[in-house]
């Protein structure tokens, strides 16, 4: 999956915003909370949140590592050569979106037009 495909998928989810943080990372958020972060520099790498059980399983696969600074919150960094198919990337990113969305206060959900 390339950056444009990942970007198009993230922006297809309801109430998603994007912005550049740390000068070279494209961040996708819902209600002001990040659910996916992609490097703007080649080669493509991106991070997403997973549940604790999947974190242990995924973090030992080639091309998948605990995300720097976010690993304690169960984020995975997918680097070049990761084993995830496009469909699995979309599933993982959608799951990350749903996990972050589920933790938002009702006020944030309402402001995002999700209630």
From TrEMBL:
Question: What keywords are assigned to this protein?
Answer: DNA-binding
Q: Does the keyword DNA-binding apply?
A: yes
Q: Which molecular function GO terms apply here?
A: DNA binding
> Cross-referenced Pfam families, in alphabetical order?
YjbR
Looking up SUPFAM superfamilies in the UniProt record yields: YjbR-like
Is DNA-binding one of the keywords UniProt gives this record? yes
Superkingdom field: Bacteria
Name of the molecule in the record? MmcQ/YjbR family DNA-binding protein
**In which organism is this protein found?**
Nibribacter koreensis
Q: What is the lineage of its organism?
A: Bacteria, Pseudomonadati, Bacteroidota, Cytophagia, Cytophagales
